[in-house]
Amino acid sequence: MSKYSDSSVKGARIDHLGIAVESIDAARGLYEALGLRVIHQETVEHEGVRTAMIPVGESRVELLEPLGPETTVGRFLSKRGAGLHHIALHVDDIQAAWAELQGRGVTIVSPAVQTGAGGHLYFFVHPKSAGGVLLEICQDPV
Ligand code: ZN
After folding, report:
1. Terminal-to-terminal C-alpha distance of the chain
2. Please, which residues have CB less than 5 A from ligand 1, an ion?
3. Residue 26 Cα, ligand 1 centroid: separation in angstroms?
4. Exposure string over 95-131, b if 16+ CB within 10 A, otherwise e
5. What is the value of pTM for the model shown?
6. Average pLDDT over residues 106-130
7. 89 alpha carbon to ligand 1 midpoint, in Å?
């Protein structure tokens, strides 16, 4: 049996919730009012987005502000408005997860495993393969 059909896969947890917003500066106040803090901000040019990470217990909220209307998040905002953009699941072995999902015919959006903010690895699973939710699979930097 594959280790990914076991519900207790080592290292598996919700890493973060990605929320699309018009403005990080306008959105962060709510979290700060709850005593939470933005610990990291970064512009990811190849994704066309500015991000802000807010730790919440063992997980995080990732605010996503588009760099322009023609970016992925920009189009999401104009079509659906601000809201939940993706859920990110952490795994210990992203290459094994990629191979397992591909073997099952899951539609993967990313052309390959990508390197993102802070050197972490990630790829995206299409919402049509994930109950209508864009799913990010991620692993800590190696
Ligand atoms: Zn994310």
Report:
1. 27
2. 18, 62, 88, 136
3. 19
4. eebbebbeeeeeebeeeebbebbeebbbbbbeeebbe
5. 0.88
6. 92
7. 9
